[in-house]
């Protein structure tokens, strides 16, 4: 029982990890076919995972509606929206328009989904502005440099700023292409090294949290 629950998943993970890591260094038709087959299986598994996730979501909100917990009305709206969209999508074969005419599915997407997404990002703008206000306080020399650079970039990215300060656009572009690019590369290198280290830990069984029981 312990072998099936612990040892076997670790063994499968190690074999699959080493196999597909080595696949990138073996330019052979058999290796490419293996990757293509694995990609198709990942898509199939992803489809089942999507069904499982939607089922779990429905179950969770159904329990909330049944018990009349706080905010159960939002769960009812979620139910109605998801079921209605699924029904309309199936009826329209998932197409937004047919012969140039917008379908009900296209109407839902263009006049409900898109405005909701715009509203979500508009709300996020206030949180970003609040975080920027707290971060850009010139409490030290480094914070002052960050504040000045942020002001130059923001002024150079809007037409009004370029009109008031003609050189702000060129300076802003230089900051983004030179200073910011070098920092971004360093961060990406660090993230990549961290991903490689984590992959090795998972492949060799050091990291076992995905099994649900930590390292034990």
Strand residue percentage: under 5%
Strands of the largest sheet, in order across it?
Answer: 1-2
Q: How many helices?
A: 7
Radius of gyration, in Å, reads: 26 Å
Q: Give helix % range.
A: over 70%
Question: How would a textbook summarize the main sheet?
Answer: 2 strands, antiparallel
- Class from helix and strand fractions: mainly alpha
Report how far apart the termini are: 15 Å
Q: Which whole number gives the mean pLDDT?
A: 85
Order of helices and strands: HHHEEHHHH
Low-confidence stretches: none
Q: Total strand count, please?
A: 2
Can you tell me the overall shape?
A: extended
Transmembrane segments: 7-26, 41-59, 71-92, 112-133, 145-165, 185-206
Keywords: Membrane, Transmembrane, Transmembrane helix
Summed up, what is this model?
The chain crosses the membrane at residues 7-26, 41-59, 71-92, 112-133, 145-165, 185-206. With 216 residues, the chain is mainly α. The protein has helices at residues 2-23, 29-67, 72-91, 104-135, 141-156, 159-164, 168-203; strands at residues 97-98, 101-102.
What's the layout of helices and strands?
Layout: H1 2-23, H2 29-67, H3 72-91, E1 97-98, E2 101-102, H4 104-135, H5 141-156, H6 159-164, H7 168-203
Antiparallel strand pairs: 1-2
Helix pairs in contact: 2-3, 5-7
Descriptive report:
The protein has helices spanning 2-23, 29-67, 72-91, 104-135, 141-156, 159-164, 168-203; strands at 97-98, 101-102. By secondary structure, it is mostly helical. A two-stranded antiparallel ribbon has the order 1-2. Helix 2 (29-67) packs across helix 3 and helix 5 crosses helix 7 (168-203).
